[in-house]
Amino acid sequence: MSGTLYLCATPIGNLGDISARCLEIFNEADIVACEDTRRTLQLLNHFEIHKPLTSYHEHNKKEKGSYLISLLNEGKNVVLVSDAGTPAISDPGEDLVALCIENGINITSVPGPVAAINALILSGLPTSRFSFEGFLSVNNRHRHEHLASVKNDTRTLIFYEAPHKLKSTLSDMTKAFGENRRIALARELTKLHEEILRMTLGEAVSYYEENSPRGEYVLVIEGASEAVQEEESWWDNLSVTEHIDKLIENGMDKKSAIKQCATDRNMPKRDVYNIYHQE
Ligand code: SAM
User: Fold this and answer.
1) 85: Cβ below 6 Å to ligand 1?
2) pTM of structure
C-alpha cells in the first residue's frame, strides 16, 4: 500500500503557532520535503525532531517530484512544508499535489497559518467574498494584464509582495485601480514588529516615499464598487473591435485582449471572438 503525502502548515513567524498535530505528523513521517532544508532544519531542531530532509523547490520539482512519488509508492509517509505557512499556496507544492493525484496517492492536510487569510481578517475590508491573486509577475506586460483583469472585480483582492518590489507594485496598482481604493498593508504578521497599515492606495504611495519597506507584506485591496465600475469603463463608447484593438495597442497579444475584453464586458469569450473576427 502506498504512503501518504501530508501537507503540513508551519508558522509564518511565531513558532508558538505550530500545531500539536503537525508535530505528531513530523515525528511519524519517514521524510520531510521542504523548499529550503536549512530553514526547515532550524524549525525541526527547535522542536527536537530529527528526520531526513529533502529539498523540493521551483528548480528541482520535476526530478524531486518523481523521487517523492517513488518513496510514496514504496509505502513511505512524506511531509511537505513550505518555507512558512501553508504549502501549495504560492509555492511549487501544487505540482506535487497534482502528481500525487495522478498517481493515485493519498493526500491529507494538517491546517495552520496562511499569511493571506490572516491579512484579510485583520484588514477591516469585506471578507465575505475575496480573490487570492498571489504575486504579480516581474514581467511588465503580465503585471499590466493581471491588474487590468481584476480592476473591475468587486471582491476584496489579496496579493503577496516582497519588500524590494513594494513601491513599484503600489505605483502600478494606483495606476490600475485609482488612488482612492482602500488598502491594508499587513507586514511581519505574527512577528514582533507586526503592523497593519490601513489607508488609500494614493496615501500608501506617499507613505513609502518617506519610509522604507521592511519585512514581508500581504496587500489587501478593496474591490471595485459598482458605481466606480459604471463610471470608469474607458471602453464604454467603443465597439468590441475597437476595445480589443486598444488593448492590443497597449501591448496585449490578440488572445489576451479578447479574453480581457470578454471579462471587462462580462460577455462569453466566444461571442467576443466571433464579433472581432466578423467585423
Ligand atoms: N505559503 C505561504 C502562506 O501560507 O502564506 C506563503 C508563501 S509565499 C512564497 C511568501 C509570501 O507570503 C511573502 O512574500 C509574503 O507576501 C507572505 N508572507 C509570508 N509570511 C508573512 C508574514 N509573516 N507577514 C506578512 N506576509 C507574509
Assistant:
1) yes
2) 0.83
